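Onboarding guide, step 5: your first structure request.
Type a short instruction followed by the sequence, for example:

Predict the 3D structure of this protein.
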Amino acid sequence: MKTYSTIEIKSVLDPPIKLNFIEYINCPSCDIEIDVKNNIVNNNSFITCENCEHIMRYRVVKIQ
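The system replies with structure tokens like these:
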């Protein structure tokens, strides 16, 4: 069974944004590092862990 989680990114920019401030994120299910350096994300973007198929959806929150 696939599981889901949300990665919240706070930014002063409107989406889409480029993830050039982070190289890896850890999967919350299996703790494997996932390379996200320079990915372009939007609110509809997601990344899937190749090890456990956990799906992480991005949510971009604009800071004012």
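Each response can be followed by summary notes, for example: Strands lie at 4-11, 17-19, 24-26, 33-35, 39-41, 46-48, 55-62.
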